[in-house]
Design goal:
The structure holds five protein chains of five kinds.
Chain A lengths: L1 E10 L2 E11 L4 E5 L6 H8 L7 E6 L2 E2 L5 H6 L2 E3 L12 H6 L10 H6 L1 H21 L15 H13 L5 E5 L7 H18 L2 E5 L3 H7 L3 E5 L2 E6 L1 H6 L1 H8 L6 H7 L1
Parallel strand pairs in A: 3-8, 3-9, 6-7, 7-8
Antiparallel strand pairs in A: 1-2, 1-4, 4-5, 9-10
Helix pairs in contact in A: 6-7
Chain D lengths: L2 H21 L9 H28 L6 H16 L4 H31 L4 H30 L19 H20 L7 H18 L1 H4 L15 H5 L2 H9 L4 H33 L1 H11 L1 H6 L4 H27 L9 H15 L4 H30 L7 H8 L4 H16 L9
Helix pairs in contact in D: 1-2, 1-16, 2-11, 2-14, 2-15, 2-16, 3-6, 3-7, 3-14, 4-5, 6-14, 15-16, 15-18, 16-18
Chain E lengths: L2 H37 L6 H22 L9 H29 L4 H23 L12 E3 L1 H8 L7 E2 H23 L1 H11 L1 H6 L4 H26 L4 H18 L4 H18 L4 H7 L18 H15 L11
Antiparallel strand pairs in E: 1-2
Helix pairs in contact in E: 1-6, 1-9, 1-10, 1-11, 1-12, 2-3, 2-4, 2-9, 2-10, 3-4, 3-9, 6-7, 6-9, 7-9, 10-11, 10-13, 11-13
The chains are: A alpha/beta, B alpha/beta, C alpha/beta, D mainly alpha, E mainly alpha.
The complex binds adenosine-5'-triphosphate (2 copies) and magnesium ion (2 copies).
């Protein structure tokens, strides 16, 4: 579905992404792992249009989407969530969802003055849809709270909910797990799985938590130094010498010393 | 967005009039230090039955107690928003503690400013933005030693011995280092004060497994020098494995307390907080 | 009714804003005339003249109009003002004409004001730029100057004057190497001086103000050795200029409105002891403007603008007994007796056509740090 | 006291102040209806400007410090639309000027094209330089002689290319359009910069606009000012000479002068109120619709809004253009009210920073707040001087007559204006930081 | 062809005034940039702070002059300068204590500080006029010239003169010294480093035991000193009038931004860029070219790119061009 060909992104002399090529299959939940600074987030940002690539090509369903701005990618069905929740904090949770769909006639100034009837109809439909999504995520009770006031996990769910307001094709998740309590994380994992199964969303997930990856992802891609290092099922990756050396490591060295002390 | 009207900038980010880089969010509870007094016994560092919140906002901590004794590693775990970071800030004097006390080494320091707590021997490594990115590694360490008036070159050598990679990069701006190296600078900076106790807020968040192991190794090493360590961790399993003492906070209250092993073994805790 | 009558004179000047440094002196000049009249006790049954200052802000029509309305509400019988052409036009169109109020401006010299529908209510004691351009060209020519560089303060006064100097000087065969504007109130004039110096010329004519940009330009030009002789139109003539610039200014020349009557010297003597700077720009004009209003009232034997507006030209121009500053009492007496006066005042007032000063000019030269009269033109 | 009540009271306060100005002459009031209406009229215009700035700042966090420039463009529109056509100007140089401007625009377009479509390198730089320099000289070659011929026509009174001779009311929307066009150009450049530098860009470009107005005499006579602009209302003098009006005035018990001046001012007040209400309605409707929701989302979090398919740059541009257009309309209205355009009178303190004070004091993000701020601050702007004099007289009443300090204090009273504005601003920012009528 | 005269003419009318004006702008821009870097907002009141500093210095200068104190060939104002600096520091600290500190405690957003500074600007504006009045104040004394145009011509026998005013020389020398001291202070001293640390990361500075209020205090003191020095040098070289200082705000901001806001090096470069662009783009090159080129090529016209009316516009056009190509200014901004 998404094909990245020989992508480069340089910051000055520094090659953050250095010739990455990878493919993401339709309907998959692809895990993206790799050491800090491997260029995962940068790769994401280039695909999602936040950064312009230095060279290389990104295609989606055969269409060249290299360097398109995020809002255009959104309309093509490519969505993303953020490592740190980016909720619209002064708006209610419901409004957070209602604002998502594009091409609302109420977003045209002219209509706000002279097309009020049409807006009212559209708003009713949107509202129903938003409530449905909140229901799905089991957070109906926070619909009227300001999004800035709900808990971190609820914000993450809300982010996920936004992707459900439209017919997304592919969703990029950047470290959903960082700083999230495990129990909540697995609730999110379940939601992701359901979306994948029920709605056919494709997911790409950056994560450092192997258990999370284990629950969700197949295949897993490991990046290092701006390139793809390995790809396969998690077990294959875990067994990969290069990956162990660059990323996974072999556990604590000092643990025994500690126990000896105690 | 908070409800503080002074923090409403309407989303303005115009670089010609505002500089958002490095702006602080922490607010010391006291502008001037109050009196301290001696108390007997108790652990080396303890935030005792603390209740309090940010500014005039609601209480976030409720009778929360966390403590660490000499030679120990104490770990705080709990769901997001439980108040773990808040508890750390309260111990460090960044929070209006409405009741309860903070005691260090037999002295009640509840009324001190953060700076004075640093002088009393507390070292703190925050969760994010914990280095001076525009300054060199060495300057970062120097800033760690800011409150010291004596010669701190020895300490700096010790830090370099502990984190050899930093010696190689001493004249490089810290912002150019990788995530793991940055964390080392951050811990090194805190060690420069020769603290009597070290507090770490999620040192391994967003860090790859290999770097996480490396960091835990270093932390254990530091602890072995006799320095008590109080830290917040999301990677609860690994953290509790190396912990002497563990606290589980829920909604600002102590939910479970015990040794690391005990908590790991507790089925309730495992189910609710460690993902089974 | 037992009480001496009170005549209220509004002084509408920009006490804040770009020319805030000039206006206190101008207002003091006008108040001096009022005080002189009051002291004489000869105005309309020994009326006292009360002056009321109001701020025009020079560049804020809103404030100017509101201040003018306030003056009217407080019962002003005439308005001495306003100063900057913009606010003067605004007040004239929106307050004075609709209310039939007489306004005499000491400093607004925009040609546009000449043709404005004023119902015979608006006058000014500042001379027309067109006439001064002619005189300046002649002065330059007579002194054998062949080429000049020209700089003007970027407002209607400077622009109008420089246009007139340029066309007149070229008409008598002179060459204008460059015309460059300068902004008042912006301390640095290196760019202007650089451009002027590069263009060259025998003399640098500075159509500005002696305590604003004009001074900065002269100083810069002298310091860098770009020019050592300067042509000084009326806005630049005053004792403060040689004092501030120093002996290097000696030999520079120019002209200022004035006639044989030596009104200017008399005025200088009269004002010498007072605590304001009478050499600052437009102080004499302000004195004259205030005096004209009061004299016209006397001539019409009324303080109603509708009555005395028509008399302004009469008292200002010949025929009649010439009146210098300090002789207001005498003038009032003559008028009361039904006589005729020709007010000269501090600036040799001569109003032509639609009420502006035509004026004869006094050619001056700076000698030994003093402004000296060469001849009258 | 509920918020609504408090806010209503604030409006009532301003209203009462203006009424008192008309009715009584105690304290600092002048007891003249003319004076009250003068304050009201400029207050209404200020309120409109404040709405424009509030849309930009309150809705979208755009910090526009170039309000002066847009206001001036509105003023220019009045000259270009409503002054009579000057055929000689067009026949002598008008065409040349238009041609030169088109040339200049073409050069810029060509330069942009070259940077867009030619590969970067030495050749591109060379071609670019050649095109720019050649374009500049061709432009000057056509422009300069045309300008001098236009400026030569009756320079004392005209010397510019004149206007279209259309009704002056048309100039109001035209002023909006002109300001919108300029705002579009500025926004395209400044909002497109990688970091946002809108503030300094607007500050600078406003100065440039004023420099052009002051120095391009062919356009609007530069510093020589355009006076006697047409009016949408009759002249007072004509009314005073109209027997039927005088008769009607007499029936109200008014003398013709007062009746005519008040009549005209009230007429303006009515027109301004209509414009203000229309704009207020439009702003409120937009704010309460999905458009407003989208703008709030963008304000809350640009990155997320962008990821949710909202074209942030375009929306910022839209709102910047809209707000500027409103300032342009207000500028045109002000020039109409003054009946003259005086480029020299535009300065940032009055036309930019004062409007900011209005918006902040009124309540950023709230249109009603902006209106209140506009009216209230304008009232103080005018009335602080008499208040200051009153205060100084009070303070100095104990001092000896003729003491230097007393004289100095009394003379300094007019400088209380800026001082007071600062004080009000600081007090509001301190005790009611969201303004007197805060955003909900 | 006469290269020597061309060079002298250029030096006299472009380089010397450009250097002096550039130094004055640079000193002003340094103050703006320090506030921006450390206190994180653009201080609209900076122009008026400069006016206040100059005013205090003038008042003290008058006092000295009246008792006959003088600095020989140098302006008396130099003696009064320390007092001016002290006065301005007092004002800055007072303003901080009564106004800004509250917002710091509230952790107010930088843009709120900008608005607050707007209020402070209005107040100072009124205050200065209240004390010294709106008029022009002259306080220059001492020797006028290091070398005057006439002397130079006599000495060298060239057609063109070269004048260097005492105030110009003084401006440049002072600026160099001040900048050197400032850089030494920021990069080498403990306090300077703590200021950089605070600018980099406020929270971490606090955790390192750096007292934020101290840093803020030092910043205001340095900025007040810089503002006073800039204000006095400008006043000495040109003239003092409160109104002009407000007008200076714009080129000062332009300088700071061209150079890269928050970067002291950038402020200095920016000051000179703005000053020289104002002078050179509106300069009529006729004279220099006439001297410099062979007679056959000598220009007829003025060879002036733009008339001086647009000198302000020029600095802004340059600003925008710089930002288009270097979005954070010439020297990467935001690092003290
Ligand atoms: N805007 C930028 N300018 C300069 N360097 C950058 C920029 N953004 C990222 N980098 C550098 O690019 C490298 C890759 O960063 P990236 O954020 O993509 O890593 P990552 O794989 O997401 O790491 P992590 O797991 O820590 O999030 C890092 O060394 C980073 O310092
Ligand atoms: N500066 C602040 N002002 C007001 N409320 C705050 C502030 N910081 C945190 N809070 C609130 O305090 C509560 C506890 O937050 P805290 O950061 O202590 O949680 P935590 O346990 O550290 O969570 P995490 O694991 O996500 O770091 C949350 O509800 C949060 O919204
Ligand atoms: Mg990342
Ligand atoms: Mg935390």
């Amino acid at each position: 579905m998404i094909v990245v060909e020989d992508l480069h992104k340089h910051f000055g002399g520094f090659h953050a992404v250095d010739g990455a090529s990878l493919e993401i299959a339709k309907g998959s939940i692809t895990g993206l792992i790799g050491p800090n600074g491997a260029g995962k987030t940068t790769l994401f940002n280039v695909i999602a249009g936040v950064l312009q690539p230095t060279s290389g090509r990104v295609t989606m369903d055969g269409e060249d989407i290299t360097g398109l701005p995020p809002h255009e990618l959104f309309h093509k069905g490519l969505l993303r969530t953020f490592q740190i929740a980016h909720e619209f904090s002064s708006m209610t949770c419901r409004e957070n969802l209602m604002m998502v769909p594009g091409n609302q006639s109420g977003e045209t100034l002219w209509n706000t003055w002279f097309g009020r009837k049409r807006i009212a109809d559209e708003e009713r439909a949107l509202r129903a849809k938003a409530d449905e999504v909140l229901e799905f995520l089991t957070i109906s009770h926070i619909a009227d709270l300001k999004a800035g006031q709900v808990s971190g996990g609820q914000k993450k769910l809300l982010e996920l909910g936004r992707t459900m307001m439209v017919d997304a094709k592919i969703v990029f998740l950047d470290e959903v797990g960082a700083g999230v309590n495990r129990t909540l994380l697995y609730t999110i994992a379940d939601a992701i799985k359901r979306l994948n199964e029920e709605r056919g969303y494709t997911f790409v997930v950056i994560e450092h938590d192997m258990e999370f990856i284990d629950r969700l992802c197949d295949p897993v891609i490991c990046m290092a130094e701006g390139k793809k290092l390995a790809e396969g099922t998690l077990d294959e990756i875990k067994a990969n010498e290069q990956v162990i050396e660059a990323y996974l490591g072999t556990g604590l060295k000092n643990k025994d010393k500690l126990e000896a002390d105690a | 967005m908070s409800d503080n009207p002074y923090q409403d900038d309407h989303g303005n980010k115009d670089a010609s009039i505002t500089n958002l880089k490095g702006a602080g969010t922490m607010q010391p509870a006291h502008q001037k230090s109050g009196p301290t007094h001696k108390v007997d016994g108790g652990p080396f560092l303890i935030g005792d039955t603390m209740t309090g919140g940010y500014g005039k906002g609601p209480d976030i901590l409720h009778d929360c107690t966390i403590a660490v004794d000499k030679g120990e590693i104490a770990v705080i775990v709990g769901p997001n928003g439980a108040g773990k970071s808040t508890a750390m800030k309260a111990v460090f004097g960044m929070l209006n503690v409405r009741s309860g006390t903070v005691r260090l080494d037999g002295e009640d320091i509840t009324q001190l400013t953060p700076q004075d707590r640093v002088i009393k021997g507390m070292g703190f490594v925050p969760q994010t933005s914990n280095i001076f990115t525009s300054m060199t590694v060495e300057e970062n360490l120097e800033m760690g030693a800011f409150i010291r008036t004596d010669d701190f070159r020895d300490t700096m050598e010790q830090v370099y011995d502990l984190f050899p990679i930093l010696r190689d990069k001493r004249n490089q701006p810290a912002g150019e280092l990788s995530g793991g190296q940055r964390q080392q600078v951050a811990v090194g900076r805190a060690l420069m004060t020769k603290p009597k106790v070290l507090m770490l807020d999620e040192p391994t968040a967003g860090v790859s497994p290999i770097v996480m192991d490396e960091l835990f190794d270093r932390i254990i090493e530091v602890a072995r020098t006799g320095l008590p360590i109080l830290m917040v961790e999301q990677n609860a399993k690994q953290a509790l494995e190396i912990a002497d003492k563990g606290y589980v906070l829920v909604q600002g209250r102590n939910a479970y307390t015990g040794t690391g092993k005990e908590l790991l073994a507790d089925p309730e805790v495992r189910k609710s907080f460690l993902g089974g | 009714d037992g009480h001496a009558k009170e005549v209220k004179l509004g002084i509408l000047l920009g006490f804040t804003g770009p020319i805030e440094s000039l206006t206190p002196h101008m207002a003091a000049g006008a108040e001096m005339a009022a005080a002189e009249v009051t002291a004489s006790g000869k105005l309309l049954d020994s009326a006292t003249v009360t002056t009321m200052r109001a701020d025009s802000a020079c560049v804020d029509n809103g404030i100017a109009i509101a201040s003018a309305e306030k003056l009217l509400a407080e019962g002003a019988n005439g308005i001495m003002g306003s100063d900057c052409s913009g606010v003067t036009g605004a007040v004239l169109q929106n307050v004075a004409v609709p209310n039939g109020m007489v306004m005499i401006s000491p400093s607004a010299s925009s040609p546009g004001l000449t043709t404005m529908e004023d119902n015979g209510l608006f006058f000014r004691t500042t001379p027309s730029d067109a006439r001064q351009g002619e005189v300046m060209a002649q002065v330059l020519k007579d002194r054998g100057v062949n080429s000049i560089a020209l700089t003007y303060t970027n407002n209607d006064y400077g622009k109008g004057l420089s246009d007139s100097i340029k066309s007149n000087f070229e008409a008598v065969g002179g060459e204008v190497t460059i015309v460059a504007a300068h902004e008042d109130g912006k301390g640095d004039y290196s760019a202007e001086v650089g451009a002027l110096a590069s263009a060259g010329g025998d003399v640098l004519v500075v159509a500005g103000y002696l305590d604003q940009g004009g001074l900065g330009i002269i100083q810069g030009a002298l310091d860098s050795g770009a020019f050592d002789t300067f042509g000084l139109p009326d806005g630049m003539v005053g004792d403060s200029l040689p004092t501030n610039v120093g002996p290097d200014l000696d030999g520079s020349f120019g002209q200022i409105a004035g006639s044989q009557s030596k009104g200017a010297e008399v005025f200088a003597e009269l004002a010498a002891g007072k605590d304001f700077d009478h050499t600052s720009a437009y102080v004499g004009e302000s004195y004259d403007a205030a005096a004209l209003i009061l004299l016209a009232m006397q001539a019409a034997n009324s303080t109603a603008p509708a009555d005395y507006a028509a008399k302004v030209l009469e008292v200002a121009n010949a025929p009649g007994e010439p009146i210098n500053p300090g002789e207001l009492g005498k003038a009032l007496e003559i008028l009361a007796a039904g006589g005729d006066i020709d007010y000269q005042g501090a600036t040799g007032v001569e109003l032509i056509g639609p009420g502006e000063s035509a004026g004869s000019y006094r050619e001056i030269e700076i000698k030994d740090g003093k402004v000296t009269t060469v001849q009258y033109r | 006291m509920t918020d609504t009540m408090k806010h209503t009271l604030l409006f009532v306060f301003v209203g009462v102040m203006i009424l008192l100005e008309g009715m009584t002459d105690v304290l600092f009031f002048s007891g003249s209806w003319n004076s009250a209406l003068v304050i009201l009229n400029m207050g209404l215009i200020s309120a409109i400007m404040a709405i424009g700035v509030n849309i930009q700042w309150g809705f979208a966090g755009l910090f526009n410090v170039g309000i002066m420039g847009f206001t001036a463009l509105g003023g220019l529109a009045v000259v270009l639309v409503s002054t009579p056509v000057i055929p000689e100007a067009w026949s002598s140089g008008g065409a040349g000027i238009v041609m030169a401007l088109v040339m200049g625009a073409l050069t810029v377009v060509a330069a942009v094209m070259i940077t867009k479509f030619m590969p970067a390198g030495r050749l591109r730089a060379l071609v670019l330089a050649v095109v720019m320099i050649a374009g500049f000289f061709v432009y000057r070659a056509i422009f300069d002689p045309s300008v001098s011929s236009v400026e030569a026509i009756n320079p004392a009174l005209q010397g510019n290319i004149g206007g279209l001779g259309l009704p002056v009311l048309l100039a109001w929307p035209a002023g909006g359009l002109l300001a919108a066009g300029a705002a579009w150009l500025i926004g395209k450049t400044a909002l497109g910069l990688r970091s946002d530098y809108l503030a300094i860009a607007t500050l600078g470009i406003a100065e440039i606009i004023i420099a052009v107005l002051k120095n391009e005499d062919w356009l609007s006579r530069g510093v020589k000012n355009v006076v006697g602009l047409p009016r949408p209302l009759p002249y007072e003098v004509d009314l005073q000479n109209d027997p039927s009006f005088v008769e009607r005035a007499a029936s109200w018990g008014l003398d013709p002068v007062t009746a005519s001046t008040v009549y005209v001012k009230a007429g303006y007040a009515l027109m301004f109120t209509v414009v203000l209400l229309a704009l207020l309605w439009m702003a409120q409707m937009a704010l309460k619709s999905p458009w407003g929701r989208m703008m709030r989302a963008i304000r809350d979090n640009e990155t997320a809004a962008e990821a949710m398919g909202k074209d942030v740059t375009r929306r910022h541009l839209q709102i910047f253009v809209l707000g500027s257009a409103i300032c342009g309309i207000a500028g045109a209205m002000m020039t109409t009210l003054d009946s003259q355009l005086t480029p020299g009178s535009y300065n940032p303190l009055r036309f930019t920073f004062l409007i900011w004070v209005m918006v902040i004091v009124g309540g950023s993000g709230n249109n009603f707040g902006a209106v209140l701020g506009g009216m209230l601050i304008w009232f103080f702007w005018i009335k602080v001087e008499p208040m200051g004099i009153l205060l100084m007289e009070l303070v100095t009443s104990g001092m000896a007559e003729g003491s230097a300090l007393k004289a100095h204090l009394l003379e300094s009273a007019s400088h209380m204006r800026l001082f007071t504005m600062g004080l009000i601003l600081l007090l509001v920012l301190r005790f009611s930081p969201r303004g007197l009528i805060p955003e909900k | 062809m006469d290269l020597l005269n061309a060079l002298v003419a250029l030096t006299n009318f472009v380089i010397v005034p450009g250097l002096a004006y550039g130094s004055q702008l640079a000193l002003g821009a340094l103050g703006v940039t320090l506030i921006y870097g450390i206190l994180r907002f653009s201080n609209f009141a900076h122009g008026d702070t400069m006016a206040f500093g100059a005013m205090v210095t003038i008042l003290v200068t008058w006092l000295f002059q009246s008792v006959g104190l003088s600095a020989g060939p140098l302006p008396t104002a130099l003696l009064a300068l320390p007092f001016g600096i002290l006065g301005t520091i007092a004002l800055a600290l007072f303003t901080d204590k009564t106004v800004y500190r509250f917002y710091r405690q509230q952790k107010a957003k930088p843009v709120i500080f900008v608005m607050v500074s707007l209020g402070v600007m209005f107040i100072m504006n009124g205050l200065v006029r209240f004390i010294i009045g709106p008029g022009d104040q002259r306080f220059t004394d001492g020797e006028r010239f290091v070398i005057s145009a006439r002397t130079f011509k006599k000495l060298t026998g060239l057609d063109e003169g070269l004048a260097i005013k005492t105030t110009e020389a003084l401006t440049v020398v002072t600026a160099v010294i001040v900048v050197a001291v400032l850089f030494w202070f920021l990069n080498k001293t403990r306090t300077g480093k703590s200021m950089r640390a605070y600018s980099d990361n406020e929270d971490l500075a606090l955790l390192s035991g750096i007292n934020p209020e101290r840093v803020v205090m030092y910043t205001w003191m340095i900025v007040a000193a810089l503002a006073t020095i800039a204000g006095v040098l400008y006043g000495l070289d040109k003239s003092f009038k409160p109104f002009t200082y407000f007008q200076l705000l714009l080129p000062i901001f332009a300088s700071a931004i061209v150079g890269g806001l928050g970067n002291p090096l950038g402020a200095i470069a920016g000051g000179f860029i703005i000053a020289f662009s104002e002078v050179t783009i509106t300069y009529a090159w006729k004279k220099v070219l006439t001297y410099g080129l062979p007679d056959s090529l000598a220009p007829d016209g003025l060879v002036q790119l733009l008339s001086t009316d647009y000198k302000f516009a020029v600095s802004f056009a340059i600003l925008i061009v710089v930002l288009l190509f270097k979005p954070t200014g010439l020297f990467k901004g935001k690092a003290v």
